Amino acid sequence: MEQKNTDNTFLVRWLNNELTKEELEAFEQSEKTERIRYTIKKIGTLDAPQYKEEEILKQIKEQLNETSKMRPLFPKWLYMAAASVAILLGMYYFFDNSTKFETTYGETKVVSLPDGSEIKLNAKTQVSYDKENWDANRTVLLDGEAYFEVEKGSAFVVKTKEGAVTVLGTRFNTKVEKGFIEVQCHEGRVKVSGTTIGERILNKGDAFRKINETQKNWKIEEEVPSWIKGESTFAEVPIHYVITALQKQFDVVFEVHSIDQRVLYTGGFAHDNLEIALKTVFDPMRISYIFKDKTTIVLEAE
Q: For residue 199, what is the domain's CATH number?
């Protein structure tokens, strides 16, 4: 019975329910069975694009049927399981048809979507969407900060690692970092949702922010976010996020000494001059800044 478990096509036959009763009983008693089930279950949770299962299974079988000429250190059927996992993961990335855009330090970019909607990306931002299935699924993945002008139609969803924003037709700005999400509604109505957020409805002029476990609501009057006009503004934001914004706009690195980065900052800086931006942000906070070299700045409390 053990010999049958070394069949090069054992795993394929198991996946196709083609094992004999004796083979299945022996396999179910193996200590490695649960590991394989767990691995395949995890693969099933990947948000992979649609593909033809018969063609992919054919490719898997072709790969598995290639006999190795090297003497294995482990049972061949275990190698087959690992090979199947590698092939499936490889095909997930190969068949990923998402359209992606990103910006680098100090760069902005305008992205036109298939329905006429537009996304304006701020510095160091990434977005992606499925162009082929856009009419049926108006979903954008966002990491960074972007301003959206959405044409009316089916639900438009912006997914981030900190929560999701759902709209029908509107203009809004979304900014996300680790432990941070901020949404400003400039026109129409949006829904912000997430595991630790619940659901919140924002109307025109409403803004919402969540930093770790702290949430804040406030009003805005601007027709568009300030960064569209070349200036970053902040309302009671920990100075840590202001420092991060400076890094993204000017491609510099900060060495921070003896500063409580939880201190709140209200103000802003223009994107066209680093020296003026540093003075604007840090002078009122009584923080000194010294250029260690062209791209490294040391910050210390005065």
A: 2.60.120.1440
Q: What is the pLDDT of residues 106-121, one digit of tens each?
A: 999 999 999 999 999 9
Q: 56 with 91: CB under 8 angstroms?
A: yes
- Give Cα separations from 296 to 129, 247, 258, 286 (angstroms): 35, 10, 17, 19
Q: Residue 124 — left, alpha, or beta (φ > 0 → left; ψ -120 to 50 → alpha)?
A: left
**Residue 227: Cβ-neighbour burial (10 angstroms; 0-12, 13-18, 19+):** buried
Q: How far is CA 54 from CA 58, 106, 203, 228, in A?
A: 6, 46, 48, 48
How many domains would you assign to the chain? 3
pLDDT grade for 160, boundaries at 50, 70 and 90: very high
> How many Å apart are CA 24 and CA 10, to the nearest integer?
10
User: Residue 26 belongs to what domain range?
Assistant: 4-94
For residue range 6-57, list pLDDT tens digits in order.
455 666 676 667 778 777 767 666 655 655 665 555 444 444 444 455 555 5
Same domain, 13 and 88: yes
Asked if residue 103 lies in contact with residue 143, where contact means CB atoms within 8 angstroms, the answer is no
d(CA 220, CA 186): 8
What's the angle, vertex CA 90, arms to CA 88 and CA 96, rounded to 5? 100
Q: What is the mean pLDDT of the chain?
A: 82
